[in-house]
């Protein structure tokens, strides 16, 4: 079950009318709960209402193999967080509060998982993993010995740091905080990695919502104790259901993506005036941020600009200028690596602007950069989503709609062929198994980028939409989006499924009036 960030379970039914209306009804946004983030609250904020619910929820999500989270390397961060939280509870409250066997199974899982491949490229993994390993080691090897019920872990070798991870960056971040110097704004989202140094850290302040870095864990680490104020109010609101998401609020992100997906698919949906006004106001001269307390980024900026342009509120692409590296667009200045979907979204935003030397040149550069990064089999992959279906959908549609002079047609054809070749026998698409989300992306990409009249594409679309109608509403849909933990932005995924299935307009062609 997915949870609203601080409210009620999100509905799977309804049309685009209901979906867009929910953007105002739940302004913080709706996203799935996170094992990583919930475990951090268990460890950091036992005084917060709902502690027992969070602990029960955490224990219920331990896998039979002892781990938590997604398949493969995606289990490392949530399992480390959950194990450290259980060790904290055992030390603080004793075995009556939590079964030592759950911590033992988690430690056994980690003993094997930490010797595997480097974990996936999730935000702050290079900070989180060393920080949690140090904390777990302190629990097991401290002067008092292991927590109750875990005597067998005394004297065992320390859990190893995975290959490819260097603790030096965490050391530098903690040194900055120890010296009373502010850390880069983007690191506020993972401030909890600083340990005790996170408490009232210099240069870190809650946003207007009370959140630090739009993160419950970072906010709890900064607050330290239940002192009245905006930060405590934020924590109480976001934690009301018990478990918490990795990020809240996600207002700008959710609104931009939902509206962008729907208008791109031709769904006849407008938006209430307050939503458009607030989305436009979120785009400043240096861009838009997912939420207050996070830095502006090119991805959120580009999708917001695209959606606004398609809805008649085009503000121009000036806010993207600060992200232009001269070859591609960075997600934020100083980014390690680069994002293909960010650049696909930038191409979308550029493509909605009147042609001119600057816009046309940027479109050509981004097109060439994206084409060069196509995998040999035709797909694209990206750092913000586990599935290549999402990246391929984003890049294919951007190239098909906005590449100058049809220069990317061959790449588009290869991407379409990859989608056709990877459709499962039951008509779905999926990384680990067929899902409604990934099937929706594939259907939207084939419908938007495939050649009209192609019999193979028509057959794939028919099978995909039929399977989509069967998958829609399943309870075992995995979280696929990258944050500190895998997560599922409920309304964004819902928009893709509605747009791909045709259910978005089941209630009739009447638009949501712009009021």
Structure classification: mainly alpha
**How would you describe the shape?**
globular
Order of helices and strands: HHHHHHHHHHHHHHHHHHEEH
Low-confidence segments, given as residue ranges, are: 1-13, 504-515
The main β sheet shows up as: 2 strands, antiparallel
Please bin the fraction of helical residues.
Answer: 40-55%
User: Count the helices. How many?
Assistant: 19
Binned strand content: under 5%
Radius of gyration: 23 Å
Strand neighbour order, sheet with most strands: 1-2
Give me the count of strands.
2
- What's the overall average pLDDT, rounded? 91
Distance between the termini: 33 Å
What features would you describe in this structure?
With about 525 residues, the chain is mainly α. Helix content is about 45%, strand content about 0%. The chain is built from 19 helices and 2 strands. The protein has helices spanning about 15-25, 35-45, 50-60, 75-95, 100-115, 125-140, 170-180, 215-225, 230-240, 250-265, 275-280, 300-310, 340-350, 355-370, 390-400, 410-420, 435-450, 455-470, 490-500, and strands spanning about 480, 485. It has a two-stranded antiparallel ribbon. Helix 2 (about 35-45) packs across helix 3, helix 4 (about 75-95) packs parallel to helix 6 (about 125-140) and helix 16 runs antiparallel to helix 17 (about 435-450). It starts with 15 loop residues before the first helix and ends in a 14-residue tail after the last helix. The model is unreliable at about 1-15 and about 505-515 (pLDDT under 50).
């Amino acid at each position: 079950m997915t949870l609203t960030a601080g409210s009620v379970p999100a509905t799977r039914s309804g049309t685009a009318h209901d979906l867009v209306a929910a953007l105002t009804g739940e302004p913080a946004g709706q996203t799935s709960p996170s094992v990583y983030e919930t475990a951090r609250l268990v460890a950091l904020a036992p005084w917060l209402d709902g502690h027992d619910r969070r602990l029960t929820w955490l224990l219920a999500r331990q896998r039979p193999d002892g781990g938590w989270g997604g398949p493969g390397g995606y289990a490392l961060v949530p399992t480390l967080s959950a194990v450290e939280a259980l060790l904290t509870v055992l030390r603080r409250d004793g075995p009556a509060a939590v079964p030592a066997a759950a911590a033992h199974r988690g430690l056994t899982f980690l003993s094997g998982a930490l010797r595997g491949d480097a974990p996936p490229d999730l935000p702050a993994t290079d900070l989180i993993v060393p920080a949690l390993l140090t904390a777990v080691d302190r629990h097991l090897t401290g002067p008092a010995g292991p927590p109750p019920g875990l005597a067998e872990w005394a004297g065992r070798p320390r859990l190893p740091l995975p290959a490819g991870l260097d603790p030096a960056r965490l050391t530098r971040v903690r040194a900055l905080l120890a010296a009373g110097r502010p850390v880069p704004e983007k690191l506020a989202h993972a401030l909890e990695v600083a340990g005790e140094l996170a408490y009232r850290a210099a240069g870190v302040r809650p946003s207007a919502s009370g959140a630090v870095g739009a993160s419950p864990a970072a906010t709890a680490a900064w607050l330290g104790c239940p002192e009245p104020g905006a930060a405590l109010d934020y924590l109480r609101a976001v934690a009301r259901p018990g478990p918490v998401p990795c990020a809240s609020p996600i207002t700008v992100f959710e609104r931009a993506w939902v509206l962008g997906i729907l208008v791109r698919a031709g769904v006849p949906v407008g938006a209430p005036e307050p939503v458009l006004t607030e989305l436009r106001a979120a785009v400043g001269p240096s861009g838009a941020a997912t939420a207050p307390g996070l830095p502006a980024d090119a991805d959120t900026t580009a999708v917001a600009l695209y959606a606004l342009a398609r809805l008649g509120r085009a503000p121009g692409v000036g806010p993207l200028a600060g992200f232009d590296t001269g070859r591609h667009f960075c997600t934020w200045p100083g980014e390690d690596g680069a994002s293909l979907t960010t650049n696909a979204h930038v191409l979308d935003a550029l493509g909605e602007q009147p042609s001119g030397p600057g816009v046309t040149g940027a479109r050509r550069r981004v097109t060439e950069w994206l084409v060069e990064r196509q995998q040999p089999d035709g797909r694209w992959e990206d750092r913000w989503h586990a599935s290549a279906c999402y990246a391929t959908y984003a890049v294919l549609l951007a190239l098909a709609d906005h590449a100058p002079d049809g220069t990317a047609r061959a790449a588009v054809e290869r991407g379409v062929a990859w989608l056709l070749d990877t459709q499962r026998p039951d008509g779905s698409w999926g990384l680990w198994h067929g899902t409604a989300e990934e099937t929706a992306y594939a259907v939207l990409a084939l419908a938007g980028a495939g050649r009209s009249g192609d019999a193979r594409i028509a057959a794939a679309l028919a099978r995909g939409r039929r399977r989509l109608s069967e998958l829609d509403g399943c309870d075992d849909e995995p979280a696929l989006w990258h944050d500190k933990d895998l997560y599922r932005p409920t309304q964004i995924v819902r928009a893709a499924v509605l747009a791909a299935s045709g259910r978005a307009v089941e209630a009739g062609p009447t638009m949501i009036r712009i009021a």
